[in-house]
Amino acid sequence: MSREKQEAELVREALRIGALYMQKRGAGQFEPTDSASEKVRALYRLLVHDQLIQPLAKDQENERNMKHKLALWIERQLPAGHPLKP
């Protein structure tokens, strides 16, 4: 699997797990009408606020970099032997 495709799968999994985290934390939930971009930004900001990931530099805050941060975050959360874990 190419690195870009694997990262896209990791981001998809991060959004799924992140939605559960948001609900359990009481921080809200994603609506069906929310775009993927909105979900990425909301989850990134929540994880930064909860100090679960390091924030990006202000000039580096864009959707592509946020997705990369979410992919790295979920990759660390996955158990050994998970299909998405290299």
From TrEMBL:
Question: InterPro entries this protein is in?
Answer: DUF5062, DUF5062_sf
Under Gene3D superfamilies, the record lists: Uncharacterised protein PF16691, DUF5062
Pfam families tied to this protein: DUF5062 (PF16691)
Q: What name does the UniProt record give this protein?
A: DUF5062 family protein
- Lineage of the native species? Bacteria, Pseudomonadati, Pseudomonadota, Gammaproteobacteria, Oceanospirillales
